[in-house]
Amino acid sequence: MRLGTRPSALAMAQARTVAGEWERRCEGLRVEIVPITTSGDRHQGIGDLLALGGKGAFVKEIDRALIDGEIDAALHCAKDLPGDVPRPEGVALGACLEREDAGDIAVFRDGDVARTLADLPAGARVGTSAVRRCAQLMQRYPQLRFEPVRGNVDTRLAKLDKGDYAAIVLARVGLLRLGVERVHERLDILPAVGAGVLVLECRAGDRAVAEQAERLDHAPTRSRLAAERALLAVLRGSCDTPIAGHARLRGELELRAAVFSRDGARVLTASRTAPAAEAERLGAAVGGELLDRGAGELIHQA
Ligand SMILES: NCc1[nH]cc(CCC(=O)O)c1CC(=O)O
């Protein structure tokens, strides 16, 4: 089984874990990891991603390799799958792996006295790329300067240690998967759609791989992700839209979502519940409600 993924340290660590788990669950299976450089990996400068046409930049080359038969399966962070365009026709969802932590954290320099964002002096620079994070944090910490920081998780940590920033905001799961222990604060902000979920994709119509992929599937995560991605599709969210969405499953599926202005001064929130079997409809309903209340204008302005 040739499993394609990005060559970043995080993607490779994720792929090694998933490959091991897959081999354990499928007798006789051997998984070979195939690193595939995407345009997103080649262009790590600020603004480059937008020029490349959004988040699809991290998946396009891998989609192509899958469709062309160079790999049999692909591993992606659900968060990196574009929300405004459907997945290509030749690509099918094989498995949603069980969700880990969906939360965001602020990471501080080792040895620094600051251990929370509230500890930082006024004017301190905090590196965070996602507009969703900036919008929510600027309102709570108006004394701090939130500035874009791009690059892989390891690159961002290096920029923190070099002194470019007093703190950086990252996905908690990134550090967990890399096995990196750092001084950090958990942030109580609404997560990104798909945060902390890995998806395994296969070629549409490839029964053999689909059957093996099923062994890795976690049905509750699949429902939660379906609701979140339906929300994103209705809102036509891409990499640079300040949208948050997080579904929980406690008997029923509950989806909470928010759309922000770039500075976070304006916020629209919505939340609804539905049976897990109606995940897509739930996502569409929450998205529809936000659009009715003016989310389209907020997203357009952002
Ligand atoms: N923006 C890139 C990205 N895409 C997915 C993750 C984290 C892993 C995940 O959520 O599965 C990250 C790093 C981050 O946001 O700090």
Which terms would index this structure?
Porphobilinogen deaminase; 35% helix; alpha/beta; Double Stranded RNA Binding Domain; D-Maltodextrin-Binding Protein, domain 2; 302 residues; single chain; 5-stranded mixed β-sheet; Porphobilinogen_deaminase_C_sf; porphyrin biosynthesis; 13 strands; transferase; 3 domains; binds the ligand NCc1[nH]cc(CCC(=O)O)c1CC(=O)O; 11 helices
Describe this structure as you would to a colleague.
This protein is of the alpha/beta class. It folds into three domains: 119 residues, 3-Layer(aba) Sandwich (D-Maltodextrin-Binding Protein, domain 2); 84 residues, Periplasmic binding protein-like II (D-Maltodextrin-Binding Protein, domain 2); 85 residues, Double Stranded RNA Binding Domain (2-Layer Sandwich), CATH 3.30.160. 35% of the residues lie in helices and 23% in strands. It contains eleven helices and 13 strands. The strands form three sheets. It has a five-stranded mixed sheet with strand order 2-1-3-10-4, sandwiched between helices. It is globular and about 55 Å long. The mean pLDDT is 94.
